[in-house]
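Figure S4 source data
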Amino acid sequence: MSSNTLIAILGMALVTYMVRAGGMWLMGFVKLSPGVEAWLKTIPGAVLVSLVAPTVLASGPAETLAALATVLVAARTKKMFLAIVVGVGVVWVFRKIF
């Protein structure tokens, strides 16, 4: 890797960090209403769904069944690690079948 590439990567990482940290710092001065606070708490889930849904819907049956199994286990047990293990296991098994 050339030094210019490394400098560019480190520069982008620094700018990304500064934007995130700056936003957190600035939000420390803002008083949020309960509605806005509830809305902000739902954003991470919405972003995750927007990233995962196209892959799940555009892939094969193994991936779709694994996503469904992952969501069901996570919703029922509230244990994310277990849900991930089940999802990986389901996709592995169904890729062998399909």
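Figure S5 source data
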Amino acid sequence: MGKVLVFLVGLVAGAAVAHLATRTPTGARLVALVNGAADEFAAAVSDSYRARLTEGN
């Protein structure tokens, strides 16, 4: 239960920091950069998964 609490506290703290960071132009650029990288990573994982699915069939 303690690990879940630590995870949730970290999640809320990260969201709060991101919210505060978007208030400045530099912070907004940084958040956009991180979001872009996360989107690219998610797309690459998704494409790999779909490719593996078609390989198996």
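The chain has a mean pLDDT of 93. The longest helix spans residues 25-56.
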